[in-house]
């Protein structure tokens, strides 16, 4: 059977009338006559289940008439199952959302607008990074409330640096420092590479673009034909051409994180939760250091994070909203931070996360928030993100590959076609 495109599924949903009462009501009563609300909470990360269950338990202390059940779905199947469940009427009442998908779900009426409720309750979300809050706003309406965030930091192998007698990376480092250090530690005989230049948009592509003053998406147009964007990408492909970083084929079966943990990679760009596995291994923990990303023509990184959203067709809109609001508060942030599994987005709650891994300089993720650029997204993000891997791939094979400027301009043209269709709808 040919799978139904997600836009078709969501458009079909837009034609289904909302359940009576789902437009929301004011006041504390979730159900008439003292009934109970039963909320399903959809998420995909099993490592966060204990912390989120603790958050839910605290929520229920304040709202004993609301039952909340975690519905865990692995990320590999999360979105297809969610789309089918929304159309079929069996989706969770509250569920995790990310930047690549928020505009699509909001556009086709699958999410409950939250702005009026937040305004009524005096919730400004000012405690969360501003550009993260704006990621979950569509057409002036707030549809998602942040729960956590991530930027990208440089992970480095102290043992390899010590062996080469190179100072550790710090906030003064530039791209040139990275290239010089990579050349010093590169050891073909031991299959040790200097750093990762993977075809990974969040960890590698976008930070390099932003560090070179480039852009990905602006005013409904692609930025991949911009010379500054191409220059950022060339920093990565140039390292592969010089054999300082593994090419796309070498990375196909072994991801950068696995190469790093195996001692075969001196540096790579990682997310906060990329620190979990190295920290659990005492030997890897002892040799791992973290620093802010090096500067190109400027400092730059990408900020992303998950938000909680409310199913527009939940029979319990007020209870679902109260859960989302609670999960965006200080107590929920402190609980998530203490778990050490995720970096909470509520200001002032991150210290517990830092304290959970004292040997790592986790502060580096927070230090980069002031100059971080929001994760680029539009209605059809998933479509043009797939294009990135397909079209840029031939430039990631090393010497003899397609010049990066050719691939980037091809991508810009195809991406602009997709973006133009968004505007035409």
TrEMBL record:
Signal as UniProt keyword: yes
Keywords: Signal, Transport
Signal sequence extent: 1-20
Gene3D superfamilies reported in the protein's UniProt record: Periplasmic binding protein-like II (3.40.190.10)
One GO CC annotation: cell envelope
Annotated compartments: Cell envelope
Family: Belongs to the bacterial solute-binding protein 1 family.
Protein name: Carbohydrate ABC transporter substrate-binding protein (CUT1 family)
Organism: Pseudonocardia hierapolitana
């Amino acid at each position: 059977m040919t799978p139904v495109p997600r836009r078709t599924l969501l458009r079909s949903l837009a034609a289904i009338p909302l359940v009576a009462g789902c437009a929301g009501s004011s006041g504390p009563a979730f159900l008439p006559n003292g009934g109970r609300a039963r909320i399903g909470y959809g998420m995909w990360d099993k490592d966060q289940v204990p912390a989120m269950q603790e958050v839910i338990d605290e929520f229920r202390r304040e709202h004993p008439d609301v039952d909340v059940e975690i519905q865990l779905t692995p990320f590999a199947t999360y979105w297809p199952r969610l789309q089918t469940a929304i159309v079929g009427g069996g989706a969770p009442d509250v569920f995790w959302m990310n930047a690549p998908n928020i505009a699509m779900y909001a556009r086709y009426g699958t999410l409950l607008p939250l702005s009026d409720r937040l305004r009524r309750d005096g919730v400004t979300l000012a405690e969360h990074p501003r550009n993260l809050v704006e990621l979950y706003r569509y057409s002036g309406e707030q549809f998602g409330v942040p729960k956590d965030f991530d930027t990208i930091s440089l992970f480095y192998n102290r043992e390899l640096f010590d062996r080469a007698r190179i100072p550790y990376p710090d906030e003064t480092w530039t791209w040139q420092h990275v290239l010089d250090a990579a050349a010093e530690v590169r050891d073909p005989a031991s299959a040790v590479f200097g750093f990762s230049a993977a075809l990974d948009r969040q960890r590698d592509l976008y930070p390099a673009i932003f560090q070179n003053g480039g852009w990905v998406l602006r005013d409904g147009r692609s930025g991949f034909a911009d010379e500054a964007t191409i220059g950022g990408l060339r920093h990565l492909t140039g390292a592969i051409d010089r054999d300082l970083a593994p090419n796309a084929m070498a990375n196909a079966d072994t991801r950068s994180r696995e190469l790093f943990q195996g001692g075969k990679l001196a540096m790579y760009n990682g997310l906060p939760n990329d620190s979990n596995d190295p920290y659990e291994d005492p030997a890897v923990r002892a040799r791992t250091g973290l620093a802010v990303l090096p500067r190109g023509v400027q400092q730059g990184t990408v900020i992303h994070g998950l938000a909680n959203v409310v199913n527009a067709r939940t029979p319990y809109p007020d209870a679902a909203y109260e859960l989302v609001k609670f999960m965006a508060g200080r107590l929920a942030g402190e609980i998530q931070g203490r778990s050490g599994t995720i970096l909470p987005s509520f200001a002032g709650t991150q210290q517990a996360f830092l304290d959970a891994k004292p040997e790592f300089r986790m502060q580096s993720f927070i230090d980069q928030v002031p100059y971080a650029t929001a994760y680029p997204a539009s209605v059809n993000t998933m479509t043009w993100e797939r294009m990135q891997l397909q079209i840029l791939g031939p430039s990631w094979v090393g010497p003899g590959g397609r010049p990066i400027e050719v691939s980037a301009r091809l991508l810009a043209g195809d991406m602009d076609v997709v973006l133009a269709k968004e505007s035409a709808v």
